[in-house]
């Protein structure tokens, strides 16, 4: 059996799975993931979605804010496409008797599509009035601070996804402080505390953790390879201890979730 065949046929009773069981329950909500099927580079089928959710269940998650990409060139999702994928997965969860609760939002790329969405107040907003945004990994967006301000002017609270992964900030660490000072919250990818994305990303994540800069934590889970990596990370790293330096707001999302399972289609 080859490496990848072995990887994708791992047993659920692997040591890493057992050692990671329930360890993320203190976070209450996974607020960044790609669990909705067939609309971006995350889960491609309902079966994929269920498998990923079952894996996250073992880690202690039972509530999920699903954040598919809204990206003009690759994944031009709308509230309607996201709602359709949400409805399909919600029905499948009910039929499978999985008690996971899902909510719909999005991860908005700062590109040419985001300004019209802001102008029409047509963003996919998370429970609590948060809006998840991201930038290209290749180059900083010149519109970052304008986008932060425009979202705030609508009465929403912007969250920048995985800032530790933007390599162009690794040698200009003051940019993270400037983003925070602008009122933008920061979200850590759990895999970033390992070398999954590379050593520089890990160093940036641990430095930001020590500086108390993160506000939210997400899995950013796309596929089974990442699920297995996440199980390994949770088994081997003292995640809760690493996060003690930050005021992590994931549990506060529960206050906003009741009766708010899906985005309004406009």
UniProtKB/TrEMBL annotation:
It comes from the Bacteria. It is an enzyme of class 3 (hydrolase). Its EC number is 3.1.3.48. PANTHER family: TYROSINE-PROTEIN PHOSPHATASE YWQE. It catalyses: O-phospho-L-tyrosyl-[protein] + H2O = L-tyrosyl-[protein] + phosphate. The lineage of its organism: Bacteria, Pseudomonadati, Bacteroidota, Sphingobacteriia, Sphingobacteriales. InterPro entries: Caps_polysacc_synth_CpsB/CapC, Pol/histidinol_Pase-like. Keywords: Hydrolase. This is protein-tyrosine-phosphatase. GO terms for molecular function: manganese ion binding; protein tyrosine phosphatase activity. Belongs to the metallo-dependent hydrolases superfamily. CpsB/CapC family.
């Amino acid at each position: 059996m080859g490496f990848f065949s072995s990887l994708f046929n791992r047993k659920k009773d692997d040591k890493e799975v057992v050692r990671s069981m329930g360890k993320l329950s203190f976070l209450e909500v996974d607020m960044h993931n790609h669990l909705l099927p067939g609309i971006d580079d995350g889960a491609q089928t309902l079966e994929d979605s269920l498998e990923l959710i079952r894996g996250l269940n073992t880690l202690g998650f039972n509530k999920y804010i699903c954040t598919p990409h809204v990206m003009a060139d690759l994944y031009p999702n709308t509230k309607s496409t996201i709602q359709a994928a949400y409805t399909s997965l919600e029905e499948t969860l009910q039929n499978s008797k999985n008690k996971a609760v899902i909510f719909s939002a999005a991860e908005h790329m700062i590109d040419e599509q985001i300004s019209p969405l802001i102008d029409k107040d047509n963003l996919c907003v998370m429970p609590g009035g948060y809006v998840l945004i991201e930038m290209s990994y290749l180059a900083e967006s010149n519109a970052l601070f304008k986008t932060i301000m425009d979202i705030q002017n609508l009465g929403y609270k912007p969250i920048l996804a995985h800032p530790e992964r933007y390599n162009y900030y690794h040698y200009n660490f003051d940019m993270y402080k400037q983003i925070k000072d602008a009122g933008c919250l920061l979200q850590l990818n759990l895999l970033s505390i390992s070398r999954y994305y590379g050593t520089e990303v890990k160093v940036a994540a641990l430095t930001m953790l020590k500086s108390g800069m993160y506000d939210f934590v997400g899995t950013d889970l796309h596929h089974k390879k990442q699920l297995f990596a996440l199980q390994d990370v949770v088994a081997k790293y003292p995640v809760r201890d690493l996060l003690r330096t930050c005021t992590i707001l994931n549990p506060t999302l529960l206050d906003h979730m009741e009766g708010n399972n899906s985005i309004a289609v406009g």
